[in-house]
Design a protein that fits this description.
five-stranded mixed β-sheet, 164 residues, Nucleotidyltransferase, domain 5, General transcription factor II-I repeat domain-containing protein 2A, alpha/beta, 5 strands, elongated
């Protein structure tokens, strides 16, 4: 890093030499940044009048299923915020009940009021769209008074697979 500093900003090299880059220091700084960003997002979410959620489940390079939730919300001044809300590991299988549980825990962590959710977008996988044991069915069963609209994105590849 100091070699790069010699080329890019040699006058600031002394500043870089005094920065502690021990594992403990870097970890604590990352944790502080995480807390700050989470606090900012919670503050914005607290001001949302309405919001929508986009979610997807996919496997990482270790073949562990990950659920990713994105949130888009609008406040009373019509300012729109769109952020990655959370990424949750799905331990075991990717059944609708596990997806629903991680969805609830992710939104609870960020203090997202379920009553503010107006739409949820997901893919057309059975674990998402199943009317009884899929995410959609469990959401409607647990929140019958929430009139959230569900959008399902179908991938052309999946449509072609179903034709054969």
């Amino acid at each position: 890093m100091l070699q790069v500093c010699d080329v890019l900003c040699p006058d600031k090299k002394n500043n870089f030499q005094t920065v502690s880059l021990s594992r403990k220091t870097v970890t604590s700084r990352i944790e502080a940044i995480d807390k700050n960003l989470t606090s900012q997002l919670e503050s914005k979410i607290g001001q949302f009048k309405f919001c929508s959620i986009a979610m997807d489940e996919s496997n990482d390079i270790n073949d562990t299923a990950q659920l990713v939730l994105f949130i888009r919300g609008v406040d009373e001044n019509f300012e729109i915020t769109e952020e990655l809300a959370c990424m949750r590991s799905l331990k075991g299988t990717t059944k609708g009940c596990y997806i629903f549980r991680e969805f609830q825990e992710g939104l609870l962590t960020l203090k997202v009021p379920i009553t503010n959710i107006r739409n949820i977008t997901t893919d057309g996988a059975p674990n998402m769209t199943g009317k009884k044991s899929g995410f959609l069915g469990l959401f409607n069963e647990n929140y019958p008074r929430n009139n959230a609209v569900f959008y399902i994105v179908l991938y052309i590849k999946m449509l072609c697979v179903n034709l054969h």
